[in-house]
What we know:
This protein has helices at residues 2-34, 39-64, 69-94, 107-121, 129-148, 164-195, 199-224, 228-253, 260-280, 288-307; strands at 96-98, 285-287. By secondary structure, it is mainly alpha-helical. The chain has one domain (2-149, 160-307): NCX, central ion-binding region (A middle domain of Talin 1, Up-down Bundle). α1 runs antiparallel to α6 and α4 (107-121) packs antiparallel against α5 (129-148). The radius of gyration is 18 Å and the shape is globular.
Amino acid sequence: xxxxxxxxxxxxxxxxxxxxxxxxxxxxxxxxxxxxxxxxxxxxxxxxxxxxxxxxxxxxxxxxxxxxxxxxxxxxxxxxxxxxxxxxxxxxxxxxxxxxxxxxxxxxxxxxxxxxxxxxxxxxxxxxxxxxxxxxxxxxxxxxxxxxxxxxxxxxxxxxxxxxxxxxxxxxxxxxxxxxxxxxxxxxxxxxxxxxxxxxxxxxxxxxxxxxxxxxxxxxxxxxxxxxxxxxxxxxxxxxxxxxxxxxxxxxxxxxxxxxxxxxxxxxxxxxxxxxxxxxxxxxxxxxxxxxxxxxxxxxxxxxxxxx
Length: 308
């Protein structure tokens, strides 16, 4: 009965976390458009940060709960899921993702840099305060260049107006994200203890899938409406945010435990997926068959988790 209770807590708290993130993202997007920010910049910054909120919230909560190994599993699992599942599923369903802007000028370079920087700082299976500051500095550089490239501003009279409810939902969403993350980590801790399953594996699989649901919904919705720039920018920006801020901030709040098997298999897999994303995006088109290839890598990822 206790196991069923905590499974229920996990489902409800994760659902609350996702719904609150959805409110936050929608409100932030409306406010961003009202300020004249271009859709691609909204994708790689505002929407990406909003869809990374579940990862950030659960990672901070896990540090305070003494389950810090969840942090690296959450980040790496979410990054793999974003590229392999979110991007792959989007490409398969909409048949073809056309990329309007040249990602290789800044954005893809930052994505590759974030992945390789994470690989280097985790080689000693620890994350120092200096390394956390490096990650946060990388995020600051990414945001600076992203906003500097925001050249496609709308005329003020053509911008949609942000309403009071957008600001209220922004605040309410942030509060509910906090409580949803807190109870999600509580449920994970109890379930992993009862079933004798390492919490890092739950973070790599269930938490990674759950916290990536906003990316799935946003990317599919954007691609179906013909706004593939938001879909691509969402995945790319979310991974950059995950690496820089979801690792950097919790690392400043406490010592992070880095399991050796994550560094040996899952981190190299994340690097491979990041490189593959860049190669596929080089011609500015991600086709359906490339989407199937990404889904095959996701099956490999999940198979390794179940084998563990």
